[in-house]
Design goal:
About 35% of the residues lie in helices and about 15% in strands. By secondary structure, it is α/β, with parallel strands linked by helices. The strands form 2 sheets. It has a 6-stranded mixed beta sheet with strand order 1-2-10-7-8-9. The protein has a 4-stranded parallel beta sheet with strand order 5-4-3-6. It starts with 6 loop residues before the first strand and ends with a helix.
């Protein structure tokens, strides 16, 4: 059903957090993408034979949609830019998505950006999913997650609950703010705070309800950085694996703003997506960071 993942105590820099283990939702479909695509997993798709999407060649959403399509026995077509030579032998999310039966279509830059800017012209029998799952159909799964958190907070008698999630498009944080009975914090991992606020404004009326925190240091998305590697190594001591692109940066920003969470009433929602570490680790090893 992709629901009711465990919530465990988690100590970070001597501060107590609660960790929502959405990485344990399912063997193939986990994290925030499982929540975003929950409605699709449970939808009647008898009239759909093909799922269409686009994005980066190591995208968590790409892999998750391939797993969804496999479960639903649908064809999955994914558009991306021309692959770099380093991916001539697929690894990480790309490898696993292809194993799930994904049809990868490489586009020229102008063709790719045309889809990114103008969308995809859907044909009969097709379902188009925007990049990263940033669409209204994601609301149902995120609201369900918010309900799980609310019930937990009530059971634990948490008076001033806070939740923190990592953000690419901000979809999870945006819809969470509509249902969570407390403060919603998020960290922009793809663009900056302005970009994130703009993306959320496309989904909800009041994106300012989400509290965005970020680092004073600028980190380019997916580019290896010593600070991120150090935080990844630090988190390994917890025996919980986090992905290098989203949760590691989020924990880094949490560490820089630890005073906001010192009351011990914050739930950190694991974003899942640790399969993607395989390709990212290779980049770190190559650079010897």
């Amino acid at each position: 059903m992709l629901a009711n993942s465990p919530i465990e105590p988690f100590v970070f820099e001597d501060v107590k957090f609660w960790l929502k283990r959405d990485d344990l939702l399912d063997d193939e479909l986990d994290g925030n993408k499982a929540r975003k695509f929950y409605s699709l997993l449970n939808a009647d798709m008898d009239k759909i034979d093909t799922i269409i999407s686009f994005g980066g060649a190591q995208s968590n959403a790409m892999y998750s949609l391939s797993a969804l399509a496999k479960k639903k026995q649908k064809r999955f077509v994914y558009f991306t830019k021309k692959l770099p030579k380093v991916l001539s032998e697929p690894i990480g999310n790309l490898k696993y998505a292809l194993q799930n039966g994904m049809l990868l279509v490489e586009l020229k830059s102008d063709e790719y950006y045309d889809i990114a800017q103008n969308g995809y012209k859907v044909k009969a029998g097709e379902l188009f999913v925007p990049q990263g799952g940033a669409f209204l159909l994601a609301r149902e799964g995120v609201w369900m997650l918010a309900g799980e958190l609310n019930r937990f907070c009530k059971h634990q008698n948490i008076k001033r609950p806070k939740v923190i999630v990592s953000s690419g498009t901000g979809t999870t944080a945006a819809f969470m703010s509509e249902r969570f009975d407390g403060d919603v914090y998020t960290v922009p991992c793809v663009g900056d705070s302005e970009y994130l606020r703009l993306q959320m404004s496309k989904l909800i009326k009041h994106p300012k309800l989400v509290k965005i925190i970020d680092s004073n240091t600028k980190y380019t998305f997916a580019k290896p950085h010593q600070d991120l590697w150090k935080m990844y190594q630090k988190l390994l001591s917890s025996k919980v694996h986090f992905d290098l692109l989203y949760d590691v940066k989020t924990w880094l920003v949490v560490s820089e703003n630890i005073e906001l969470f010192a009351d011990g009433e914050t739930i950190f929602v694991h974003s899942g997506g640790v399969r993607g570490n395989e390709s990212q680790m290779k980049r770190y090893m190559k650079l010897r960071i």
